[in-house]
Prior knowledge:
By secondary structure, the chain is of the alpha/beta class. Helix content is 36%, strand content 27%. The protein has helices spanning 3-8, 11-16, 19-24, 32-51, 102-107, 109-118, 138-147, 161-173, 203-211, and strands at 56-60, 76-81, 89-90, 95-99, 123-127, 151-157, 178-183, 187-192, 197-201, 215-222, 226-233. Mean pLDDT is 91; it is low at 1-8.
Amino acid sequence: MNSSTLRSQRVNRAIYLGDEGVRLMRPSCFTAEVRQFHNRERLFYLDLLCTTRYELIIEVGCNGYRLIGIKDDDNDYLGIEINPPRVRRLRSRRAAVMRCEARKFFKRTRLIDEIMRRYDEKVLCILPFNFLGTMDAPMEFLTLVCKAPFDLALSLFSTSETATLARHEYYDLCGITVQGVVRTDDYVRLECSNGFQAFAFDPVFLVNRISAYGFRLNDIEYYDVCNFLHFKKRKS
Length: 236
């Protein structure tokens, strides 16, 4: 692996730990389109949890328990966060946050096996608010995620022109200057001045990719700015 590849796998992580990362989840930096994304995201997961029963909800890149409100009182919640909130456990809400890089969490196979055993395999893993699209080496990360036995849900920016313009405005407000846009059949990638890269993936591309790891698409919602996908893992 050459030095440029290594650098590309570290830049987004460093930015999320810096000032820009704080601004990315600061409500004052949310545009109308980002707030719309968040509202539709919550509605999607509330509907999902009304029709599919889970004992544990895992939110990867949870910030400050961002999606805890979607769970029922008798569900448990586990957040995975590289920069966790000060309060790491909410006993009254049956919730906790683990300080861990997402990539490292999915490599902890013994822990994952124990989670599945404890919760009788009724576990939903959520990659929220375009988390996949802002990971370093996102397809390598997705491969790790898909090897885990959890059911999977993703919240993603759309590849539409409207969504691309909305992302441009959002990142500008966060102090991340977009310098170029790369479009392919599979994704739209924003190239930024500080080395940050942000992807929006075509949902058909992701469905094909994820299905190859033994998942079945259970639900999908398309909007001009965002898309939401839910997969169930086929039991071996």
